[in-house]
């Protein structure tokens, strides 16, 4: 529409609102599961199907999201995903049985799986590489605030109103953004998108879904469960076959040839390890704070919330720190400082000042926020606009797998060490050692990311470091130049 807001502003508004809604939805359910189980008269263990259905459906559509946006139009697919997610939220609130609620959660997962890669591709197409440090402020907001707000909002809505409001709350966000995007978003199609890579889809969809199922349910059902072993092995076999098929396909759905770009490949691995460490810590620490230190769910949510504030602060600093330090030093410094904070968090005990804990979690947000922001900016430095849809899909696949691997690994540590131990009187008491070991495991993922970060070269990210209109940086000996997109 003529006379409307800037296309860049429109993309930012729609992306941030949609991602905020989807990211918060991922954390609101856990707090309300007990209440849902009681009201629907289902065993607490059965309520896990709500998370499994969401994660499996999300993994099912995630690999094909980039192609759908390229082939049918990024605006059309984004608004379709947003409408599906919002509509499924309303249906979840109206559900009267576990079967209905699970089915509607599956629809939510499909919408959420399409939203992230398509929205990120639109954002990076709208902004040239040299402007992406500034737009990182928009990228970090939903990643930072939404997951931390989720448990707090869920607890308040469930206690004061009903568990159904944890889903209804999406409607006043989703409906206005859907209308706004319908009016002002610009359509974009890739003329060379081609037909659907059917063999790739038939391998990736069940492969991702089975692998995510095994990783998410392994700690619940036990790693020796025939269902977990069978689904995990079959998922890995399908993904291995996918690699072979996609490398031979002329127009693959998951373009593994993008990994030839060393910066995209290395930054993606760093991002994967960072997601594993951060999501793992945000899973383990609240459990430790409640089960060992005796805090309530609301107290725990308020104590961990400074991590989100730290991430928001870092999002304002990255546009300054990224060009000053360069991606390599910024990423490595952030990972090293966050690792040290994770180690300090593992020494928290009943006598620790809560404000010291909040300060440490704020530091996690500031330090790891710089790493996450720098990774997102640098990863796409050399990706041309025509490949942005597939690149953002692959980036999101890696992050999702990283999060699932982190949760599975740290849950395995908790189970191996044992979260309960008998005291001298034979009474079971919480075992602080198990939670400390798991937090050190989260630090281990960050150290692995630090090791990968040694392979990053600032000259490969030259397009994101220079000012608009400035000449390309001269490549150093043995390094290639990085052509700009914009």
Automatic annotation (TrEMBL):
Domain Major facilitator superfamily (MFS) profile: 11-461
Pfam families for the chain: MFS_1
Intracellular or extracellular location(s): Cell membrane
Sequence intervals crossing the membrane: 12-33, 45-65, 77-99, 105-127, 139-157, 163-183, 195-215, 227-245, 266-289, 330-349, 355-380, 401-422, 434-456
GO cellular component: plasma membrane
Family label: Belongs to the major facilitator superfamily. EmrB family.
Protein name as catalogued: MFS transporter
Organism of derivation: Paenibacillus elgii
């Amino acid at each position: 529409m003529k006379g409307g807001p800037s296309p860049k502003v429109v993309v930012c508004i729609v992306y941030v609102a949609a991602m905020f809604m989807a990211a918060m939805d991922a954390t609101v359910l856990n707090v309300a599961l007990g209440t849902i189980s009681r009201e629907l008269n289902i065993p607490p263990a059965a309520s896990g199907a709500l998370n499994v259905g969401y994660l499996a459906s999300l993994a099912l559509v995630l690999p094909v999201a980039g192609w759908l946006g390229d082939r049918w139009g990024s605006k059309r697919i984004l608004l379709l995903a947003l409408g599906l997610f919002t509509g499924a939220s309303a249906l979840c609130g109206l559900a009267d049985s576990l079967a209905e609620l699970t089915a509607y959660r599956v629809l939510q997962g499909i919408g959420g799986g399409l939203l992230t890669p398509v929205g990120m591709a639109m954002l990076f197409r709208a902004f040239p590489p040299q402007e992406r440090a500034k737009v990182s402020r928009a990228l970090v907001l939903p990643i930072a605030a939404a997951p931390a707000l989720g448990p707090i909002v869920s607890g308040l809505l469930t206690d004061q109103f009903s568990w159904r409001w944890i889903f209804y709350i999406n409607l006043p966000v989703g409906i206005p953004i859907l209308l706004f995007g319908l009016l002002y978003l610009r359509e974009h199609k890739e003329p060379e998108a081609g037909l659907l890579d059917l063999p790739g889809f038939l391998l990736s969809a069940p492969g991702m879904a089975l692998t995510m199922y095994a990783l998410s349910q392994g700690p619940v059902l036990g790693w020796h469960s025939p269902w977990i072993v069978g689904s995990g092995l079959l998922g890995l076999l399908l993904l291995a076959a996918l690699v072979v098929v996609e490398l031979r396909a002329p127009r693959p759905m998951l373009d593994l040839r993008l990994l030839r770009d060393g910066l995209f490949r290395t930054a993606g691995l760093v991002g994967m390890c960072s997601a594993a460490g951060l999501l793992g810590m945000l899973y383990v620490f609240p459990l430790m704070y409640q089960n060992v230190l005796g805090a309530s769910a609301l107290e725990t949510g308020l104590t961990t919330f400074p991590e989100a504030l730290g991430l928001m602060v870092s999002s304002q600093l990255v546009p300054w720190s990224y060009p000053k330090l360069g991606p390599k030093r910024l990423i490595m410094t952030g990972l090293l400082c966050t690792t040290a904070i994770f180690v300090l968090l593992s020494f928290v005990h009943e006598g620790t000042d809560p404000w010291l804990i909040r300060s440490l979690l704020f530091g996690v947000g500031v330090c790891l926020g710089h790493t996450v922001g720098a990774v997102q900016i640098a990863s796409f430095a050399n990706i041309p606009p025509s490949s942005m849809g597939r690149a953002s899909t692959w980036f999101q696949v890696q992050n999702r797998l990283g999060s699932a691997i982190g949760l599975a690994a740290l849950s395995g540590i908790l189970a191996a060490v044992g979260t309960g131990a008998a005291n001298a009187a034979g009474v079971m008491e919480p075992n602080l050692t198990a939670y400390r070991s798991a937090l050190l495991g989260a630090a281990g993922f960050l150290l692995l990311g630090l090791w990968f970060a040694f392979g990053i070269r600032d000259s490969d990210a030259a397009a994101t470091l220079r000012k608009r209109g400035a000449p390309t940086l001269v490549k150093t000996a043995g390094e290639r130049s990085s052509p700009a997109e914009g």
